[in-house]
């Protein structure tokens, strides 16, 4: 099984654009994790309304400089792959994973 894509401003300056394109390409089959800590994650679908606003829908940063990828986005077309990744990441740190599904998407 392939590793999920990790998109983050600290890794790539164009992460915001890549994430926007990924969401558009995977509207019907995409999932992503939004980390709250090294062992706590929220699972979203690619079409989650939490990331909708006039700027992010165009794939650009907001005027205040905030971007969708200011925090890591771990992306995959396999929900199981993301869950496995989250458990593995938490285990590396000797922690129990807390994985929560977004109730809005």
Notes on the structure:
Strand 2 and strand 3 (40-45) form a beta hairpin. The chain has one domain (5-101). The protein is globular and about 40 Å long. The chain has a five-stranded mixed beta sheet with strand order 1-4-2-3-5, sandwiched between helices. It has helices spanning 15-25, 79-92, and strands at residues 5-7, 31-35, 40-45, 73-76, 98-101. With 105 residues, the protein is of the alpha+beta class. The chain is 24% helix and 21% strand. The longest helix has 14 residues, at 79-92.
Question: In a few lines, what is going on in this structure?
Answer:
It is built from 2 helices and 5 strands, in the order E-H-E-E-E-H-E.
**Helix count?**
2
- Strand line-up in the sheet with most strands: 1-4-2-3-5
* Poorly predicted regions: none
Approximate helicity band: 10-25%
Q: State the end-to-end CA separation.
A: 25 Å
Shape: globular
> What amount of the residues lies in strands?
15-25%
Question: Helices and strands in order, then pairings?
Answer:
Layout lengths: L4 E3 L7 H11 L5 E5 L4 E6 L27 E4 L2 H14 L5 E4 L4
Parallel strand pairs: 3-5
Antiparallel strand pairs: 1-4, 2-3, 2-4
């Amino acid at each position: 099984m392939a590793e999920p894509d990790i998109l983050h401003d600290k890794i790539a300056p164009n992460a915001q654009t890549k994430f926007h394109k990924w969401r558009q390409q995977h509207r019907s089959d995409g999932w992503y994790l939004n980390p709250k800590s090294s062992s706590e994650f929220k699972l979203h679908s690619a079409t989650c309304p939490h990331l909708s606003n006039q700027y992010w829908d165009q794939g650009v940063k907001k005027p205040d400089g905030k971007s969708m990828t200011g925090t890591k986005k771990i992306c995959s077309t396999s929900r199981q792959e993301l869950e496995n990744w989250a458990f593995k990441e938490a285990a590396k740190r000797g922690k129990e994973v807390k994985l929560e599904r977004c109730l809005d998407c």
